[in-house]
Amino acid sequence: MNKIVFPNEISGAENLQQQFEPYGWYAEMRKNSPVHYDEKQQVWNVFLYPDVERVLTDYHLFSSDTGKRIAGSLALKEKGITEMDPPDHGKRRALYTKAFSTRTLQEWEPRIQEISRHLLEEVKEKQSIRILGDLATPMPVIVIADLLGVPSSDWMLFKQWSDVLITSGTRETYEDITLKKEEIMKEMAVYLSPIIQEKRENPAKDFLSDLTQTEYKGQKLSDREIIDIAISLLLAGNVTTSTLLFSVFYCFLLDRPGVYRELRDNPELVDQAIEEVLRFRPPAQVLMRKVQEDTDMFGSLMKKGEIVMAWLGSANRDENTFAQGDQFDIHRPNSNKHLSFGKGCHLCLGAPLSRLEAKVMLTEMLKCYSDISIGGFENDLLLNVTRD
After folding, report:
1. pLDDT reading at 85 higher than 70
2. Is 60 in a helix, a strand, or coil?
3. Bridge partners of residue 220, in order along the sequence
């Protein structure tokens, strides 16, 4: 259990609502304890933008190979790319680059538009739509399934698996949840193995086919390695974008009402608005690193082997970097300086895809609906919609 870090115990969040709104705690920590050692979890915590940025970018001093995991993260059979430092990280990252290159995403944009329009067509007769249930959940799962080359018709199955795999739980429930996750991982391996074998024999234009044909350290990837990569992408590729899409409409309706109408009149601001959503409500709140050698660069002595939690959500609202950081403002000139996708060698590979999916869905929504308003918020965001 000491290899698992529970962020909610550090922040004192006792329920989902408090986990969703940690920003008051961030402000207090930035002001009173910007570098904080949590005795119970035995980890350091940094909250200011420059400190978080340094932890994320200085891999010589702060390693991604921590030997620990944040509750809710995957425990793969093989060490994943997020747990590697250069030079191994760069070699493994090269395997992913083709799938997420600008050229590849440009080729995929028409398919993403097609998926978005289909989902909106499905709800065209409704006066109210559910952001998660109708749009933000199915869209990214279908997209990443298509990209990988697995049947997108199985998206509900992928979603069921994802729901289990991202569950963090508490200390009391952790062991039971871990067993459930192990069962799901076995199910996914059974599902993916014949698909991978087919890709080896008959490669197509998809990411799994590319992985079966490529080499790493002079050898082709094993089925187990490809399975782990596929599971990581299926999970990260849908959870991050789903959370981002949900946050887009939460920000527009609850954090700054009126933004949707402004974008309707000024669609050229969509990209900028999405960057501000990413800054204001990042899909992930914290990343973890391990101290490589004793250092007091942040004013407190951090010893070799100790863990540092870099709180992205706090850095994104640091008033010294983002003026009036606790206000949502799509006209903010430096929104894109946010750290929501990390920074440095571990900058999230899927960030361009997530941005593209959010842009396409929001753009299609703006075409369909002249106005939206909140119809309810309990486990999902219900929108009342007005069509053209």
Report:
1. no
2. coil
3. 215
